[in-house]
Amino acid sequence: MDTEPKPEYDATVHLPLPTATAPEPHRRSICSNCHRPNPVCLCHVIPVNPIETKTKVLILHHPHETHHKLSTTPILTKTLLHATAVTGRRLRRGDLSSFIGCQSPKPVVMYLFPPSPSSPAVNISDVNLPEITGNGEREVVLIAFDATWKHAREMVKASEEILSDFAIRVSLGVVDENVSGGSIYDSELILRKEPFSGCVSTMEAVTRALSVLEPNGVEIETKLIEILREMVRLQAGFLKPAKPRPKLLKKKKMEMDDSSLNA
């Protein structure tokens, strides 16, 4: 007979511990019409019927800007009937085919960007529209670039391989790289610091150009500025205060040091 004591077994059943699941990230509700988050929806100021213009607007949208919360290009294409955006770092002939392909007579093409030493620009206010359009017989195509200042210069330079053959470079005025830039509105809410004096947002630039190119330009400008003001007002509540750029701070410190030495 086996007299060895039998081992006692623990009858307790150990169930696996539940694994902790990360909470689902909160997703912002997006307006199905203007495609902006509902708290900053602009449908109440965007016209139900897009504004019709004689000028066709083509915007080259840098890939980095397409999802930027302050990009004004989507608002422009929603507001203007004849505004189109293409994403890329340079214009290609295919981007222009629907604008200048088989049309007769050929449209007048202008691209909006400040002048450079190697590529001068005509102030858009000095353009003689009746003369270059044959008293309105030729359409006008306006090309704008939506990107940071650095990227926009690169985009223009790359695109000029095509544009320099037939397009006119126009500008809104003087850009001074030695003067710090203002905001979307110099005296109002700060959304996005511009790098130099004279730089403006894409929507502002197109608005000011259309105010010159369109017969009812003042009316169009008033409506577009109203939309942009509302965008600034709504967005400002969700932004941190704009900080001075380190480069500008360093420049300002050097100027202060120089002034103290000359005192």
From TrEMBL:
<dbReference type="InterPro" id="IPR005636">
    <property type="entry name" value="DTW"/>
</dbReference>
<feature type="domain" description="DTW">
    <location>
        <begin position="27"/>
        <end position="240"/>
    </location>
</feature>
<comment type="similarity">
    <text>Belongs to the TDD superfamily. DTWD2 family.</text>
</comment>
<dbReference type="InterPro" id="IPR039262">
    <property type="entry name" value="DTWD2/TAPT"/>
</dbReference>
<feature type="region of interest" description="Disordered">
    <location>
        <begin position="1"/>
        <end position="23"/>
    </location>
</feature>
<dbReference type="Pfam" id="PF03942">
    <property type="entry name" value="DTW"/>
</dbReference>
<dbReference type="GO" id="GO:0016432">
    <property type="term" value="F:tRNA-uridine aminocarboxypropyltransferase activity"/>
</dbReference>
<protein>
    <recommendedName>
        <fullName>tRNA-uridine aminocarboxypropyltransferase</fullName>
        <ecNumber>2.5.1.25</ecNumber>
    </recommendedName>
</protein>
<keyword id="KW-0819">tRNA processing</keyword>
<dbReference type="GO" id="GO:0008033">
    <property type="term" value="P:tRNA processing"/>
</dbReference>
<feature type="compositionally biased region" description="Basic and acidic residues">
    <location>
        <begin position="1"/>
        <end position="11"/>
    </location>
</feature>
<keyword id="KW-0949">S-adenosyl-L-methionine</keyword>
<keyword id="KW-0808">Transferase</keyword>
